[in-house]
Amino acid sequence: MVAAFLGRMVRDRDGGAAENAARADARPMIFSSAPCMSDTPDTPYTPDEADAATPHAWAAALGGPVAEADISFLAAGEYHENWLVRAPAGPVVLRGNRGGAAGSQLGLADQISYEYRVLRALAACGATPRPLALAPLPDLPDMQARGVDAPAASSPGGALLMHWLPGRALDYRTDAGHAARVFAAVHAAPVPPAVELPPPGPVPHVLPRGMLAAQPDPVAAIVAESSALLDRHVGHSLAPRMIHARHALLGYRDRVARLAGDTRHLFAAEAPVIANTEVNSGNFLVPEGDGAASSGNLAAPCGAWLVDWEKAVVTTRYQDLGHFLSPTTTLWKTDHVFDAASRAAFLDAYRAALRAAGHPAPDAEECAVKTDILVRAVLLRGLSWCLMAWHEYAGGGRALAHADTFRTIERYLGNIAWFLR
Q1: In what order do the strands lie in the sheet with 273-275?
Q2: Where do the CATH 3.90.1200 domains begin and end in the chain?
Q3: Alpha-carbon dihedral of residues 203, 234, 105, 159, nearest 10 degrees?
Q4: For the chain, what is the largest distance between any 2 Cα atoms, rounded to a whole number of angstroms?
Q5: What CATH architecture does domain 172-419 belong to?
Q6: 201-219 pLDDT, tens per residue?
Q7: Which of 57, 100, 335, 362 could form a disulfide with 133 if both were Cys (CB 3.0 to 4.6 A apart)?
Q8: What percent of the chain is modeled with pLDDT above 70?
Q9: Whole-prediction pTM
Q10: Which of 205 and 200 is assigned the larger pLDDT?
C-alpha cells in the first residue's frame, strides 16, 4: 500500500513520468556539516510547499522505484504514523497524518502541510529533520477518487517525506547539553509570519500558506487550552472516579491563570521564536558514539536532532525550556527529575550556546525566572491532558491506545498532589 502511494506520487497528474526529469535537473539536497546555527553557502535547498507537492519533488527525494520490501513501520503516535523507506536516493521517513479531529493538536485543517512549513523554516539550523516532499490534505481525496491508496487507511490527513535521522533517545543525565544546543539553534532561526489562533474547537483552523500559529501570551494560551481539556469529559460516566484530580486541577488552573496576568508583562517585549513545545526525551535523536559525530552524510552539529514538530508555534523560548525541565516531561519515559543544580546547569548551557553563535542571550536570573513560570504552566497542560485522555482510555473511546501510556496517565493522576506541590 505504501509503495503504491509512493509510486503514484512520482508521476504527474496526466500520467506521465516525472522521475527522469527530476533526476536530471533537481537541485541537490546538500547536508551541512558546519557548526551549529551557522549560515553557510552549503545551506540545503528545501522546496516550498507548492514545489514540495509536485511529482518532481517526490521523485527527487526517492531517486527511483521503491518496493514494499524497502518499507518498514517505525512508530505511531497519537496523531501520526511513520514508516522508514529505504529509497534509492537514501533512507527517508514517510509521515502520515490521521486526519479529522484526531489529526491535529492545534486544531488545524491541514496539519501535515503545517509541519512541512515548520520544518522548512528550520531547515538551515542543523537540528531538525529536512523536509523533502509533501502530499497536503486536499490531495488525498483526489488520489482516492482515482483509486490510489493513501499511505495507510488510518492516515487520511496527508503525508510528508523527510530525511531519516539515526539515533537513540536523549538521556537527561548525560545529554542535556545537546538539548541546550539544539534549542539555541532552533530559537535562533528566522521566524516566518505568524497569526494567533484560538484554542482548538469544533471548526478546524485554516492557515494561509506560509503562515505559522502564534502564542504571544503563552501562559494565558496554555490556561485556555488546559481549560478546554478539563471540560471535554465533564459529563462522562466515569468522571466521578477522577473528581479529586479534577478539583485539584481546577484549583491549580486558577492559580496559573492569576500567574498569567501577573507575569504577562515579562513576555510582552520578547522577540518570538519557533518553539517545538513538546520536547520529551523520545523526540530527541542522539547519534550513537560521539554525540557530535556524523552518520553517513548526515551531521548532528548540535549533538542531537529534535523531531516531531506537530505542535510547533511562534512564541517565547521559555515554552521549550520549561517543557524540557517539567517533571511531567522527564517522568513520562524515564525516572529523572531535574534538581535545582542540574536545572541551572542546563539553562547556563543554553545561554552559552546562544552566545557562542553570536546571538543575544538572556541573563541568568531572567532565564531562570521566566523558565520557572513556564514550568508551572506546562504542568497544568500536561496533567489536564492526562485527565482528558484518562476518560478516553478508561471508557474505551481511544482510537489509538497504548498500555504504557495509560499506566503513566494513571500514575500521574494518582500522584497529582506531588506534581502540584
Answers
A1: 194-196, 212-214, 313-315, 273-275
A2: 172-419
A3: -80
A4: 64
A5: Alpha-Beta Complex (3.90)
A6: 777 888 988 899 999 999 9
A7: 57
A8: 84
A9: 0.88
A10: 205
